[in-house]
Design goal:
mainly alpha
Length: about 300
């Protein structure tokens, strides 16, 4: 309860920070040096997410050569990192890239950027017509760079957000920075450069609420959800780490107390009697009434 109260005062409204007394004890450095046991799983999930984003882009949005190149680059990159981590698990290599916080952070950010570019690149290549054809005429479009369903742009943005959410140990500030950058780029595309595509879609379906407005709302709502999720995950991870530190410190104190009691007992009793009572089968009964009565009888 004391630890929970102390930790609750070290949390701001938006950003999780360490208290000053934790900073003096180098707790943040110890937290960063802690091994991320779920890092391999996060990379595997990012690979699955990359496949889903690539499938979405190829099925709905324009299919370009640059999409294929970026997809292959991201796929090879994540696969190589996963193979290195698997080689460490199989003890084929000694160097574990997941143990270094800086290297792990750099790999994570680069992986997120690659997945984001796969989700983003085809949006830049969308071409719009000077005239908006009716719905029954869209089936005859032969240009693969046309975007008849622009609301999938917002869906690709939300899928790009997931690449940030799956890395649970990524600091909240970096998560929010990446999410904000993604959202700003997508909103600028929707509201400035690609607004005509959304207007054409609204005319074809006679939309009551403009699609570009709904897309911005979806992007902002999903951004807030992922940011809140990241803050909660980091808050829980830091609290678990503090509990682990407290448990280790209490264990050290118990070992020191046990060693002190052992020295006192060896000073009071002969060596063979002290070793008899300190045997493993009698350790659980050292504070029992039978043991106390034996000491009183000997004295």
């Amino acid at each position: 309860m004391v630890l929970w109260s102390a930790w609750s005062h070290s949390v701001l409204k938006l950003v999780v920070v360490w208290r000053k007394d934790y900073l003096s004890r180098s707790v943040p450095l110890r937290y960063q040096g802690d091994i991320d046991v779920g890092y391999s799983t996060s990379l595997a999930c990012s690979l699955i997410l990359l496949l889903l984003i690539g499938g979405l882009q190829a099925a709905i949005l324009p299919r370009t050569i640059i999409l294929l190149l970026l997809f292959l680059t991201a796929f090879i990159w994540i696969s190589v990192v996963l193979m290195l981590l698997l080689a460490v698990r199989l003890q084929w290599i000694i160097w574990d890239i997941s143990q270094s916080f800086v290297l792990r952070l750099a790999i994570t950010i680069f992986t997120i950027i690659l997945i984001y570019t796969v989700a983003q690149v085809n949006v830049f290549t969308c071409r719009y017509e000077t005239e908006c054809p009716p719905v029954n005429a869209t089936a005859g479009w032969a240009d693969h760079r046309l975007c008849p369903l622009p609301h999938y742009v917002a869906i690709s943005c939300c899928l790009g957000y997931l690449s940030v959410a799956i890395f649970l140990r990524l600091p909240t500030l970096i998560k929010c920075s990446l999410l904000l950058l993604m959202a700003v780029i997508y909103i600028m595309l929707i509201q400035i450069s690609h607004v005509h595509i959304f207007d054409c879609y609204d005319k074809r379906v006679s939309a009551v609420v403009p699609t570009h407005v709904l897309s911005v709302v979806y992007i902002v709502m999903f951004l807030l959800a992922v940011a809140i999720h990241g803050r909660q995950v980091e808050w829980t991870a830091r609290l678990d780490f503090l509990w682990k530190i407290q448990a280790n410190e209490e264990k050290k104190d118990m070992d020191a107390l046990q060693h002190s009691n052992k020295r006192i007992l060896c000073n009071l009793l002969p060596a063979h009697i002290a070793s008899h009572f300190l045997d493993n089968q009698f350790r659980s009964n050292m504070i029992s009434s039978k043991f106390i009565s034996c000491l009183i009888h000997y004295s």
